[in-house]
């Protein structure tokens, strides 16, 4: 359309000079490997710095502290990552999703039903919550950030009507599971690892994962390939909801008593970990194993601060600063690769 | 859906996240619509009290404050008008207009959105109506609140006494589960508790006291506390104090996760997790405030106003018009205290001038 | 020159009297095209003549108000892009073709990923990456599409490589008809040559191609016939052998009268 009708040769300025490798991305290591290395680097730097100040940092106690802190954040981060990678921007109602699932789990147990009923109910509750978000986003053609902000507020309000606080039965199997260990690490750490590995494999090696990445990376292209955008988007919300539901189950196992607002403190850390992992908010990109590193790094911060003996408010300052840095890096990555 | 520029919108949205999560953490804005009390304050000479409950949905003590106040007004043969602030600035402001229009003789209120209080204060000042405010101070209003400084000291003293009795004051670690955002209240409750432990057990070295951010909730506390235990791997006898029960229980749960719960005792604040079937076995006690009983203190001020000699206005937390006495209880004692609805009933049938402290804390 | 003597079954695709309006704007007043098997059909016209709209209708992205489409002898009615894909029509969009964050092979197989041969993995929806990689390498080599590796993200590739990849995809998937809307518009001279060469190879493989271009020189190089559009109508179809670039331009601008009567022709007469 830029060309006049009767030009003899193609005068369109070559927009891609050289036509060869122009970006460092396509040379050497894949982007995700570089992300992995840089986050692992920062993490190791933090560990080394802490160890220099306090050599006893390298202990099983620290390992327990960090792996425990990673567990629920990690599962939630996978849920958030599914949304972000598939182009759903962000799910701001994740804290509600977590608590609503935990509440459902605990309610089932408090009614004397067995654990094998409670766990599926918790996961299904998360899926239902995801489906609600997905249906509004997909059929209302609305911005997911606005929708989940609204459902997040609405969901909290409804929960406040139904319960003030919820307690898991102290002697239930699930509660005992939450207090136990496997291979020297907290029990709840292992479901997190499993979710990350399975999720990572699913994104990398299944048709479902491929298409989700495509929808997030370039929805028009995916649609032109005959991929049903609605079904994929709805699916991503429901799948992410199931993962959030599992987080809720694990949360109820380690938290003896929780209120409707108890999920709020996960919000920023989860988003920060997702963005720091190079899972771009523009969608279509992300590696869950890098996410695992990112979560590990975030989870190490409070422990390091305790070892440094810094004033408590530093934990919040650090995490806030990290989030800003992560968003900045994401913006920089986008700008650099825009063209 | 494909038409917005994702990256930018997402980052824009992120800016909102911080604010949103703060709001989520705080409180929501549902609640029943305010229903004006039935009795209209005609100028029949009867003393009329206007009472605005907070209307925060997850805090039943707020509604119960209204019930207690109603009972106390009935006891005195006064007229009583109750409204709910619905946990909202707008409703709180509107309610002030309604009270003024109804010609009440004084107002008692809890407003969880203090940003609206200066406006409300101006309205009442113009109308010449005295106000009692609960928990949140406002210049010119009688301040009624729990004595947080005493609450911290009482809890710490009780915990210190236990440590003295059980461990002969050999305490390896005193953990302070801070809620920095609560400001002065955190200093009173958490700081005074630690100081009180030091008074009972003066030989605990300074470096055995450690603080961490628990933000007044179990989830944050449980996320940050494990590091504290890891950083003090040799500590055996451990004490925990904090801003509230949630913060303290978060630390106790972290101890359990790290296998450090062999010899640990926590003393909470506010009594939120000290009753019920699932009390943390290491939460040995807490401090109850009987928030629903605030009106009992407020009505002592009201009595003087009604008698025609209003007391001097004391409007700060440091110098309160009436301080609600906190009540440090062990887990066993807490179990013996009736539940909140029962307490409201008993308070209504108690003789004039009785506080809940008198009913449940004089053992 | 006229195709009216042939029956519809001889054609890969036959569209007749397609109309489409956007509110008051008549984007297509009456568009028809008979596409033979294994030919490259140029589609030309001034800006706004309705070329893109016509192509979108043939690729299922836009639903026509009226008219008939017959593909391989059977009438079709496309409601969405996947309908056209199923009927064997592949469309290459200039900007929307590829997912930047995915590799060449992933892009080539997008929406049609091969599942693993292992029945268990297959059940788990696991794809056969090795097979897809091998096959896409074969096809790309055969078509002379030069890319460093099918495994790197397409983001780093040149415009020509990307365009070739998107076109090659059509062949890999066994499409009978490929629609290209200005495939060389953003490309340099050498890259354009690559793409034109590839179009020639597609024809050699028996694929029919519809090609929109504003570049007459390129068009006469690669096309067998051209269809000219003016103000929402297809007004003439010519064998490229019978016409010069200047002749095509004459048809486009109206300097040469149309084969069919058009409103503006009569307007010209009145004038
Ligand atoms: N979605 C739409 N909404 C409204 N009008 C449209 C739409 N799409 C196309 N049109 C109008 O239909 C007419 C034909 O447009 P079309 O894009 O098909 O032309 P074209 O021949 O491809 O032009 P170009 O050479 O500039 O690409 C134009 O007047 C255009 O403005
Ligand atoms: Mg066009």
From TrEMBL, chain A:
The keyword S-adenosyl-L-methionine does not apply. Residues 1-29 are annotated as: Disordered. InterPro entries: ABC_transp_permease. The chain crosses the membrane at residues 36-53, 65-85, 92-110, 116-139, 146-168, 188-205, 234-255, 261-281, 288-307, 313-332. It is found in: Cell membrane. Signal peptide: none annotated. Keywords: Cell membrane, Membrane, Transmembrane, Transmembrane helix. It is a multi-pass membrane protein. PANTHER family: ABC TRANSPORTER PERMEASE PROTEIN YPHD-RELATED-RELATED, RIBOSE IMPORT PERMEASE PROTEIN RBSC. This is ABC transporter permease. It comes from Herbiconiux daphne. The lineage of its organism: Bacteria, Bacillati, Actinomycetota, Actinomycetes, Micrococcales.
TrEMBL record, chain B:
Residues 1-25 form the signal peptide. The keyword ATP-binding does not apply. The keyword Lipid biosynthesis does not apply. Keywords: Signal. It is found in: Cell envelope. Residues 49-308 form the Periplasmic binding protein domain. Belongs to the bacterial solute-binding protein 2 family. This is Substrate-binding domain-containing protein.
UniProtKB/TrEMBL annotation, chain C:
Pfam families: ABC_tran. SMART domains: AAA. It comes from the Bacteria. GO terms for molecular function: ATP binding. The keyword Transferase does not apply. PANTHER family: CARBOHYDRATE TRANSPORT ATP-BINDING PROTEIN MG119-RELATED, SUGAR ABC TRANSPORTER ATP-BINDING PROTEIN. This is ATP-binding cassette domain-containing protein. It comes from Herbiconiux daphne.
């Amino acid at each position: 359309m830029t060309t006049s009708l009767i030009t003899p040769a193609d005068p369109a300025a070559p927009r891609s000079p050289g036509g060869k490798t122009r970006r460092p991305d396509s040379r050497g290591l894949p982007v995700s490997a570089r992300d992995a290395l840089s986050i692992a680097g920062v993490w190791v730097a933090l560990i080394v710095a802490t160890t220099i100040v306090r050599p006893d940092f390298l202990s099983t106690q620290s390992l327990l502290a960090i792996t425990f802190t990673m567990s629920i954040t990690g599962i939630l981060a996978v849920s958030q990552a599914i949304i972000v990678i598939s182009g759903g921007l962000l799910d701001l109602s994740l804290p509600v999703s977590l608590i609503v699932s935990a509440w459902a789990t605990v309610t089932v147990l408090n009614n004397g039903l067995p654990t094998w009923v409670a766990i599926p109910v918790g996961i299904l509750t998360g899926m239902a919550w995801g489906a609600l978000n997905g249906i509004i986003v997909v059929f209302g053609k609305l911005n997911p950030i606005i929708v989940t902000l609204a459902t997040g507020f609405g969901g909290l309000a409804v929960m406040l009507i139904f319960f003030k606080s919820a307690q898991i039965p102290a002697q239930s199997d699930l509660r005992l599971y939450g207090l136990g260990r496997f291979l020297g690490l907290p029990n709840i750490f292992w479901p997190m690892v499993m979710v990350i590995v399975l999720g990572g494999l699913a994104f990398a090696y299944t048709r479902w994962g491929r298409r989700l990445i495509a929808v997030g990376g370039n929805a028009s292209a995916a649609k032109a390939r005959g991929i049903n955008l609605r079904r994929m988007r709805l699916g991503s919300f429901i799948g992410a909801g199931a993962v959030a539901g599992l987080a809720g189950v694990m949360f109820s196992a380690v938290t003896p008593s929780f209120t409707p607002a108890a999920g709020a403190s996960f919000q920023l850390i989860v988003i920060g970990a997702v963005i720091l992992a190079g899972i771009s908010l523009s969608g279509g990109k992300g590696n869950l194993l890098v996410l695992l590193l990112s979560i590990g790094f975030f989870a190490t911060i409070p422990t390091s601060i305790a070892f440094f003996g810094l004033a408590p408010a530093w934990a919040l300052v650090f995490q806030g600063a990290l989030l800003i840095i992560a968003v900045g890096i994401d913006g920089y990555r986008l700008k650099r690769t825009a063209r | 859906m494909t038409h917005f520029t994702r990256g930018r919108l997402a980052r824009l949205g992120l800016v909102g996240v911080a604010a949103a999560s703060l709001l989520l953490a705080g409180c929501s804005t549902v609640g029943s619509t305010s229903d004006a009390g039935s009795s209209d304050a005609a100028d029949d000479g009867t003393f009329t009290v206007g009472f605005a409950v907070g209307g925060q949905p997850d805090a039943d003590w707020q509604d119960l404050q209204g019930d207690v106040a109603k009972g106390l007004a009935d006891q005195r043969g006064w007229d009583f008008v109750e409204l709910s602030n619905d946990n909202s600035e707008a409703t709180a402001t509107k309610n002030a207009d309604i009270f003024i229009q109804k010609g009440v003789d004084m107002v008692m209120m809890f407003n969880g959105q203090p940003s609206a209080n200066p406006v409300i204060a101006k309205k009442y000042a113009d109308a010449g109506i005295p106000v009692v405010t609960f928990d949140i101070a406002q210049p010119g209003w009688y301040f009624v609140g729990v004595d947080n400084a005493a609450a911290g000291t009482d809890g710490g003293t009780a915990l210190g006494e236990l440590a003295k009795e059980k461990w002969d004051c050999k305490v390896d670690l005193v953990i302070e589960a801070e809620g920095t955002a609560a400001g002065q209240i955190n200093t009173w409750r958490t700081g005074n508790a630690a100081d009180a432990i030091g008074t009972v057990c003066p030989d605990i070295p300074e470096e055995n006291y450690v603080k961490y951010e628990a933000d007044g909730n179990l989830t944050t506390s449980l996320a940050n506390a494990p590091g504290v235990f890891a950083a003090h791997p040799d500590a055996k006898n451990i004490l925990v104090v904090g801003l509230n029960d949630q913060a303290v229980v978060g630390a106790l749960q972290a101890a359990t996760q790290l296998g450090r719960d062999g010899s640990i005792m926590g003393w909470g604040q506010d009594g939120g997790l000290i009753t019920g079937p699932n009390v943390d076995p290491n939460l040995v006690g807490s401090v109850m405030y009987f928030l629903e009983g605030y009106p009992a203190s407020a009505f002592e001020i009201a009595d003087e106003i009604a008698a025609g000699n209003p007391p001097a206005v004391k409007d700060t937390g440091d110098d309160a018009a009436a301080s609600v006495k906190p009540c440090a209880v062990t887990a066993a004692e807490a179990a013996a205290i009736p539940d909140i609805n029962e307490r409201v009933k008993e308070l209504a049938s108690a003789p004039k001038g009785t506080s809940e402290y008198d009913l449940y804390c004089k053992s | 020159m006229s195709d009216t003597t042939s029956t519809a079954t001889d054609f890969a695709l036959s569209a007749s009297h397609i109309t489409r309006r956007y509110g008051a704007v008549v984007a297509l007043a009456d568009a028809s095209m008979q596409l033979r098997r294994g030919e490259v059909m140029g589609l030309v016209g001034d800006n706004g003549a309705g070329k893109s709209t016509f192509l979108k209708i043939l690729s299922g992205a836009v639903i026509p108000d009226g008219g008939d489409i017959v593909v391989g002898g059977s009438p079709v009615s496309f409601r969405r892009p996947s309908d056209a894909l199923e009927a064997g029509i592949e469309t290459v969009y200039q900007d929307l073709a590829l997912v930047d964050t995915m590799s060449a092979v992933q892009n080539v197989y997008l929406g049609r990923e091969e599942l693993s041969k292992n029945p268990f993995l297959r059940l788990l929806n696991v794809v056969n990456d090795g097979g897809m990689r091998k096959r896409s390498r074969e096809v790309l080599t055969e078509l002379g599409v030069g890319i460093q590796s099918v495994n790197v993200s397409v983001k780093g590739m040149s415009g020509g490589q990307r365009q070739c990849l998107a076109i090659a995809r059509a062949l890999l998937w066994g499409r009978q008809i490929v629609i290209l809307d200005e495939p060389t518009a953003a490309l340099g001279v050498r890259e354009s040559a690559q793409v034109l060469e590839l179009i020639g190879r597609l024809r050699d493989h028996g694929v029919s191609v519809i090609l929109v271009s504003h570049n007459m020189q390129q068009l006469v190089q690669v096309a067998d016939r051209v269809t000219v559009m003016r103000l929402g109508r297809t007004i003439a179809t010519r064998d490229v052998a019978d016409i010069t670039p200047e002749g095509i331009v004459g048809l486009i601008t109206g300097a040469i009268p149309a084969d069919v009567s058009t409103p503006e022709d009569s307007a010209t007469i009145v004038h």
